[in-house]
Design goal:
elongated, 3-stranded mixed β-sheet, 3-stranded antiparallel β-sheet, Ribosomal Protein S8, Chain: A, domain 1, 8 strands, mainly alpha, 5 domains
Length: about 525
């Protein structure tokens, strides 16, 4: 029993010790696990830090490699682009060289074709000449055979006649060739001379009106000019021959008259009366008489100024006075004195260029419209009056004849006369030089076309160049070439008889023959 107890106690002690051992072991294991866990965490943290460090280092290295690769790529791309540009430039240069060589080849080919054509034409000409020479030889043989049966005198006459015919033919051909060359050269020279003369002539163009405006110091002066019951204004109108218009225009009155001399006289009289301050009928008459004398002196001075300006000498005093009057005359709104000066300058310049008498052209150009200074008082055209006045006052015959032909009333007697007519046309035709009422212009142009269309055989007619030319298209079935010339003359004469117009009207008749067929 004791032994059993001992055994049991021993077993119990063993079990207790085993249990204690197990507990001790378990406690030691727990500490080991804790320590292991702690170490594992430290290892993991350290591994993470090393991984992050390795990651950062790898990222930096990757970025560095990327930047290096990018720089290499850009360098290679730039190099390739440079090489490409150089290649492209070389190709462009080669293309330009090829185009230049191609153009040179084209020019050479064209020159070669032209030379080939000239050679062909020359060969053809030589063939024709050879054929002609063979015919001449054959004809000479026949002539010799015929002459053999003639007497020496007959043979001599036959030979002389043949030589004369050939000489005449050659002379006609030579004259025709010279005429054509002269015509071409003369047209070029004429255009050059006229253009130079126009460039060197700088005459002013002032279109005159039929009214003048007189400025007044105040509106009160209007009442004094009108006077009591209008007696002052009636006295002014009676003494000067102009219409004095007093309207709402502030500090001004309007003078209306188709006579510029009368308008100028009235203007000067009113200005003197305004300065003097005494305005009544008796004083008005005295002032108008004084102004007439002053105006006559002013007209004479204007004429002398023109002669001095143009250096025209030995002109009769009466012609000088008439020249001064031209300042107060207009033709289609163009001042006649300015027009005469311009005609004289143009004619003189052209005469100098052509080497003809400049003095004749200058004097005739200045005096060609002198008749317009008196044409209101004497019957006759201004050309006829100009001729009469210049003859009366001692102008030379060449000057008088040049004046007489400036509107082609007679044939041109000299080159100077042609130059005067040309200068007159140029001065009148300059833009802005003359003025016409639009209604009169339209009526004249319509009448011009109506006259042309009234002629039998006219298909269409067109007025051109502001009515200075009429171009007529006729029916070729009704009007032949010869009849076309006659139609132009008849229409021109009809225009001259039925129409009033400035300058001249060129009539051009066009006849065209057309043959039309259809291939079906």
């Amino acid at each position: 029993m004791n032994s059993i107890l001992l055994i049991f106690l021993g077993i119990l002690i063993s079990l207790s010790g085993f249990i204690v051992f197990i507990f001790i072991k378990k406690a030691a294991g727990s500490r080991s696990v804790f320590n292991a866990t702690k170490e594992a965490k430290e290892i993991i943290n350290k591994a993470r830090e090393e991984a992050e460090k390795t990651k950062r280092e790898a990222s930096l290295e990757a970025k560095e490699k990327f930047l290096n690769l990018k720089a290499d790529f850009e360098r290679q791309t730039h190099e390739r682009r440079r090489k490409f540009n150089e290649t492209e430039r070389r190709l462009v240069n080669k293309e330009e060289n090829l185009e230049r060589k191609f153009r040179i080849l084209e020019n050479k080919e064209r020159d070669f074709a032209a030379k080939e054509k000239r050679l062909y034409d020359r060969e053809k000409e030589l063939s024709e000449k050879e054929s002609e020479y063979n015919k001449l030889i054959q004809q000479a043989i026949e002539d010799l055979g015929r002459i053999a049966n003639l007497t020496p005198e007959e043979a001599k006459k036959e030979l002389q006649k043949k030589i004369e015919d050939e000489a005449k033919l050659e002379a006609v051909q030579t004259i025709r060739k010279i005429e054509e060359e002269t015509r071409e050269k003369s047209q070029v020279l004429a255009r050059e001379i006229i253009s130079q003369a126009i460039q060197r002539s700088a005459a002013e163009h002032v279109v005159e009106s039929t009214v003048s405006v007189v400025d007044l110091p105040s509106d009160d002066m209007k009442g004094r000019i009108i006077g009591r019951e209008g007696r002052n204004i009636r006295a002014l109108e009676l003494a000067t021959g102009v219409d004095i218009i007093v309207d709402d225009t502030p500090e001004a009155v309007i003078l209306s008259s188709f006579d510029p001399i009368r308008r100028e006289m009235a203007r000067m009289a009113i200005e003197k009366l305004v300065i003097d301050g005494r305005i009544h009928p008796a004083r008005i008459e005295d002032v108008v008489e004084t102004v007439k004398e002053e105006l006559e002196e002013k007209i004479r001075q204007e004429g002398e100024a023109v002669t001095l300006e143009l250096r025209v000498q030995d002109l009769h005093p009466e012609l000088i006075k008439l020249l001064g009057k031209l300042k107060y005359r207009t033709s289609f709104g163009q001042n006649v004195l300015q027009h005469s000066k311009e005609v004289a300058i143009l004619a003189g310049l052209m005469a100098k260029e052509l080497g003809v008498d400049q003095n004749i052209a200058l004097r005739a150009g200045l005096l060609h419209d002198i008749g317009k200074a008196v044409d209101k008082d004497i019957e006759g055209t201004h050309t006829e009056l100009s001729v009469q006045l210049t003859k009366k006052h001692g102008e030379s015959e060449p000057v008088v004849q040049a004046i007489a032909s400036h509107h082609r009333d007679i044939d041109f007697p000299s080159i100077e006369a042609v130059l005067v007519q040309t200068a007159d046309t140029l001065s009148a035709a300059r833009p802005g030089a003359r003025r016409e009422l639009l209604e009169n212009y339209i009526k004249r142009v319509e009448k011009l076309e109506e006259i042309a269309n009234s002629y039998d055989g006219v298909a269409r007619a067109f007025a051109l160049q502001a009515g200075r030319e009429i171009r007529i298209i006729v029916e070729s079935q009704k009007i032949s070439d010869d009849k076309a010339v006659l139609a132009a003359k008849e229409i021109a004469q009809k225009i001259k008889d039925e129409l009033d117009y400035p300058g001249q009207v060129k009539v051009t008749v066009i006849r065209e023959m057309r043959a039309v067929e259809y291939a079906r």
